[in-house]
Amino acid sequence: MRADYSKFLEPSGKYRGKPFWAWNGKLEKEELLRQIDVFKKMGFGGYFMHSRTGLATEYLGTEWFELINACADYGERQEMESWLYDEDRWPSGTAGGMASEPEKYRAHFLVMECFNQDEYAARDMRPDEMAFACVLENGELVRYYKLQKGREAGAGETVAVFYEEPAKEQDIYNGATYLDTMNPEAVQYFISITHEAYHDKCNKRLGSSIKGIFTDEPHRNPMFTEFNNGRENAVPYTPGLFEKFEQRFGYQLQRQLPDLFFRKKDQPLLKVKWDYIELCQELFLESYAVPMQKWCNEHHIIFTGHVLHEDTLTAQTVMQGSLMRFYEYMDIPGVDVLFRDNENWWIIKQAASAARQMGKDQLLSELYGCTGWQMSFQDYKNCGDWQALFGVNFRCQHLSWYTMKGEGKRDYPASIFFQSAWYREYKYVEDYFSRINCFLEGAQPECRLLVLNPVESVWARAYGGAFDCIDPRDTEIKLLEKRYRDTFQYLTEARIDFEYGDEGILEHAGKIQNGKILVGCCLYDRVLVTGMDTMRSSTLHLLRQLSEEGGEVIFAGKVPSYVNAESSDEVLELAGTAKRIPFTRNSIAGACADGTEITAGGEAQRDILARSYRDGNDRKVMLLNKNWEAEYRDVPICLGAGKSASCWNARNGQVYPLNCKEKEGKLYVNISFAKGEEKLFLISDEKDGERRQPQKEEGCTYLLPDCFQYELSEKNICVLDMAKVSIKGTEFGPMDVLRADRAIRDHLGLCYRGGEMRQPWYEDKTEKCRRIPVETVDICYTVRMEILCEAELAVEDISHIRRIEINGKAISLCPSGIWIDPCFARLKIPKEYLIVGGNSIVLTMDYDRHSGIESVWLLGDFGVRLEEGSLPVIIGLPDKVSTGDISNQGFPFYSGKITYRFTEVQGISQVRMADFRGACAILRGKQEVILGFEPFEGCVEDLWGIQIVFGRRNTFGPLHQFPREQPYVEPASFLTEGNNWSGKYVLYEQGMLEKPEVKVIKPH
Q: How far apart are CA 872 and CA 839, in angstroms?
């Protein structure tokens, strides 16, 4: 059916994002309900109630459920969806360590250690170990035999010893380990603690005011990697694994352990490796995915989330097997796409393929994690656009903090919430994405090509040493990864839509129908086989049948020479009757195109991506310039079949006809694209009258001044994050506050704080009978002042503070208000307490295991100069500011909004921002017009100012991580070492770096 314009203009909460709401402190009902109102004002449609580091309210305790219910009830009244999260932090499966407290439910590994004969003879044998004498050449296995008790290995032979070992205890699991997720009894225990408790305490809310539950990063434990507490010489193990292996495959795994762990000389692929990973995959699905889906269905709630780890074929092999297999069991399959510059776009394509094949109409993405406070609205758009293009229509933003107290402020910033200066403007972003979701609702991709997913070729090549964390180390696996990336890029850059076919799914859900291949509920004309070493016999059977019935099978590049990970010529025989092409961009694009594709010409042809959807008699098209750095003018586009087209502008909700030329039943148009710009078109098979679309109007250029009067939305900020600390006469520093905190903890024998520390609720619950040591700590900050002015001091967690002295004089601890977050109190500093020159601020606090030494912040009408990049000095506020970085104009740490004022420009002005640094710009006149996305253009009447809205990066950091540009921001980013640490402040440019272009198009 045609897109509904009224829904498109103001989409309902159904289409809007539901962020992770980080419950990370001592929860208060009134504050929770206030924050729900903030979510609604920001344009969200709901939230996931998610325990995070710092939670002080007992997880799954009585108060926890009372607050869950209060939020669900209030959210329902506010038309906001409430969603559960099934774990205390992540990964799901332990219930904050409670489910894995019993040792029988803890994760285990099968470990290999290697010795020479003397080392082997001298060691104490484990009662359950198995030993093999192995002949190795350059680390590759030549041959081996089982060593019986008392038998010695031969000269030069390596003894490989295999034994079972429990996973290490970790603070992220509150001192327990991860769960044995291949053990159905262990998973049922987790469900009984978590899901059944929600059923008992929330009851009828499940399926009504509580929509569903998110499972986060469950996995079957790591294989051949140190990632996630694994080991390069270890694989996941569960009781009875050997027996189950023999039952399913007919031979004994324990007799072939060296083949599993080593790379075999002249046999790079081995069936035992492929069988082992398949078994672990099946056990994980049977034990975790199936019962989760069953429980959710029985209790009428939606099962969603994502599993670990999806970025590459290697990452999937290391932690899971094949993620597409898990998506079958989710009501709303999901992924997480962390980092701003994540270019693993096939993450979405894999999930979207399985979702559509299994008849699921929503796809979730947990996005924006690890991106940092410096992100702009354009950055959020860039990260979200390609995901929307490939099928994401349920956005779960990471992360919105309940509080910034303690470690909360370092938990993968930024907080996409009221703590950000731009939160009142954020609805602009959410309106945009919800309009895309609304426009594409119900439309089905015009996709006729199936590409076999080659992940199982990595399985068959796995061995200890093949992987570097979750990246490939093995040369042949690297080649498989490259072929996978290249295939995706060749097809998408040619605008050929396709979907992946997982061989495990094909085995039970694939069949041939009238010369086409049907996978679940999706029908494909052609199958592309490329970048594979091995193929399942069941897949081979399907492709033979497809070929026999006239369907098209295309082999690009090397033909698989293995079937079921055993050497075979059968696929080569099939390829002899199919289409064979070289593995090149042009060959793949030429063989896979069917003539209906959208085309783009000129230098933009590889950067303009497109997807076409069928919606009844109409078509819907989304175009995207994937290049974030280049704009393109008048790109010749063929939109495909149709007689007329209209443009649906997701940025402002406007709809207007598109002037196209029709030729032989296809529509042609020239379109310009800004950096990262998108287009939505509704294409009809009915002729529309010729109407002009909006055109830019010419006008007279208005020259802005070189310097501006200005207004700040908040007081200026001076960060004080260097201090001396003393306790019982022992002094540390001066040093940065986080290292000072660690020095105090070392002195008191307390564990460090951090993103994976034990939770406050857990420590209070398990140690409530012990005396909690409380010590008095003095923290001294210093700042030099060249002027005297009124100022306030922002401090954290004032309830722990006994006294604050400014130059030896105590100030009142009665707050004048909060600052940015309720955890920060503002305290007035009498002007007469300050002196020109060096000033000391001494904070005396009660310190216990839940405390922390943090920065303090001076607030006031002053400027800040950084001497030698590291010594803040208070100076006078500048009278005016100029274009350029305001960090060098007295505002190095400022993170609010700044308005550049000038003489009112009467009439209607068209403004195009030049280079500016901030989250967004706002034109100030008779109206306020947000400029959030490229090309940052807008019109306003009687323009008198331009406001730039900043992120909080230059206030909250990381302020000392070097170099500044990093692939991600995490808790560890705030405590870097060596060359990654800078004593100077590492800041981002901010402000209006160049003058905007202003044209008066309708003067008064």
A: 12
Average pLDDT over every residue of 288-313: 97
Token pair belonging to 103: 């040792």
Answer for the pair 608, 673: CB distance below 8 angstroms, yes or no: yes
Position 1 scores a pLDDT of 47
C-alpha to C-alpha distance for 962 and 710, rounded to whole angstroms: 32
State the fold for domain 717-860: Jelly Rolls (2.60.120)
Q: How many CB atoms lie within 10 A of CB 999?
A: 18
691 has a pLDDT exceeding 90: no
pLDDT for the residue numbered 286:
98
Domain spans of the chain? 108-166, 599-695, 707-713+874-1002, 717-860
Which two three-digit tokens encode residue 9? 């203009």
Amino acid present at 241: L
pTM: 0.97
Percent of the chain with pLDDT over 90: 94
End-to-end CA, the chain: 45
Phi, psi of 297 (to 5 degrees): -65, -40
What phi and psi, each to the nearest 5 degrees, are found at residue 547?
Answer: -65, -40
Residues 959, 962, 963, 967, CA torsion sign: negative
Report the distance separating Cα 57 and Cα 59, nearest Å.
6
314 exposed, middle or buried (CB, 10 Å; 0-12, 13-18, 19+)?
buried
Average pLDDT, the chain: 96
State the architecture of 599-695 in CATH terms.
Sandwich (2.60)
User: How far, in Å, CA of 705 to CA of 262, rounded?
Assistant: 70
Same fold, 599-695 and 717-860: no
Q: Given pLDDT bands bounded at 50, 70 and 90, which one contains residue 754?
A: very high
Q: pLDDT band for position 772 (50/70/90)?
A: low
User: CA 716 to CA 861: how far, in whole Å?
Assistant: 6
In this model, does residue 695 exceed pLDDT 70? no
Q: Taking Cα atoms as reference points, which of 37, 65, 58, 689 lies closest to residue 424?
A: 37
Lookup: tokens for 584: 């090149």
Q: In the predicted model, is pLDDT for residue 464 greater than 70?
A: yes
